[in-house]
Amino acid sequence: MNPIKKVYCRIFQTCLRIALPALPYRKPKTKGSVTAFPEVIRGYGCTKPLIVTDATIRSLGLLDPLEEILKENDIPYVIYDKTVANPTTVNVEEARGIYLEAQCDCLIAFGGGSSMDCAKAVGARLVRPNKSLAKMGGILKVRKQLPLLMAVPTTAGTGSETTLAAVITDAETRHKYAINDFPLIPRIAVLDSKITKSLPPSVTATTGLDALTHAVEAYIGRSTTMKTRRDALLATRLIFKYLDTAYTDGDDLRARRRMLHAAFYAGCAFTKSYVGYVHAIAHSLGGEYNVPHGLANAVILPMILEAYGPAVYPKLADLAREAGVSNEMMTQQEAAKSFIQAVKDMKKRFGIGDTIPEIREEDIPKLARYADKEANPLYPVPVLWNAKELETFYYRLMEK
């Protein structure tokens, strides 16, 4: 990256870091079961929610407990279940149309990050009917309070139930972009471990490593606070302690619950401290090829950590201690490399590879430009790279 752009990026990031204490961040109120919904809905003066989810979740019966509790309490509802893995502008407009036609007055996001991103974007379009999603891309462009937004994560990974971000894919161009604003933070997050019981091991693994990526990128970035560092460390400790159990024994509700908490804390960390190039690259792959976001993050994370080199050794050493993969005799470099190796070992145990076979060589310059545009100057990464430098990672991710 040329020196002028480097200076611009660091000045931009420094200004954001200075402004952090004055910005209206908030944590959602948490509930432990979907049985809390009638009280919450009525408590906010609402009467009819739109439930935003996907067809798979509905077919698996995961929605049944929520539907039953709403019916028992005579609360009418409408369901939009066409959300795709990387939600598109079409999804958002379809769901918004149903919300308006059915005269709903609140939103329940039920699913993984895709359903939550879709619901957030629906809320943004409801309060900004004359502003396209593309024009709300970036930071602080919504600026209006959304209808009551409640989130029920069915995976322990995205942390979207805590964040101010909605990532949307343009249905025509396949460009994936993030909308970031404080009104997008859900008011209520329901962390119900019973809902995650039916997750297959592969999804448990990739979403768990998604949460780890959030914690790691938040911690190693240059815009941390005492609270975000604490949340990131706690999330890392929980993931290393409970992810393997959740992967091998999906019925272990304690492990499931702890992983939901880990994803929540990781989300709290990165919504303030942001992420980095792992996410920028993963978003470009999700937009172009529909690669699941958690899988992309899991594949990419160790590669980027190694490329950062000595710039992240001190902070990775902290994470290594928290994860229990280092000892007092290790130098910072040794502890950092031990942490990276532990992530690689975890990937191997979960059957996650090191490549993204969908990548086409002719797409790489475009993908790198997307990643560069997303990351620079917003993400306070430890080392700055431009689009040309980012291209090398896509080549490394191609199948040999």
Question: Features of this protein?
Answer:
400 residues; alpha/beta; three-stranded mixed sheet; 16 helices; 54% helix; globular
Task: Explain what the structure shows.
The protein has 400 residues and is α/β, with parallel strands linked by helices. The protein has helices at residues 3-19, 37-43, 55-59, 64-72, 89-101, 113-127, 133-136, 201-220, 226-248, 253-273, 277-289, 293-308, 313-323, 332-349, 364-375, 387-397, and strands at 29-31, 49-52, 78-80, 106-111, 138-139, 148-153, 165-169, 176-180, 188-190. The chain has a six-stranded parallel sheet, with helices on one face. Strands 5-8-7 form a three-stranded mixed sheet. The model has no long low-confidence stretch (mean pLDDT 95).
**What best-fitting shape do the alpha-carbon axes yield?**
globular
- Determine the N-to-C terminus distance: 28 Å
What amount of the residues lies in strands? 5-15%
Number of separate helices: 16
Order of helices and strands: HEHEHHEHEHHEEEEEHHHHHHHHH
Strand order of the largest sheet: 1-9-6-4-2-3
Concise overview:
By secondary structure, the chain is of the alpha/beta class.
Question: Would you spell out the secondary-structure blueprint of this structure?
Answer:
Blueprint: H1 3-19, E1 29-31, H2 37-43, E2 49-52, H3 55-59, H4 64-72, E3 78-80, H5 89-101, E4 106-111, H6 113-127, H7 133-136, E5 138-139, E6 148-153, E7 165-169, E8 176-180, E9 188-190, H8 201-220, H9 226-248, H10 253-273, H11 277-289, H12 293-308, H13 313-323, H14 332-349, H15 364-375, H16 387-397
Parallel strand pairs: 1-9, 2-3, 2-4, 4-6, 5-8, 6-9
Antiparallel strand pairs: 7-8
Helix pairs in contact: 5-6, 8-9, 8-10, 8-12, 9-10, 9-13, 11-12, 11-15, 12-14, 13-14, 15-16
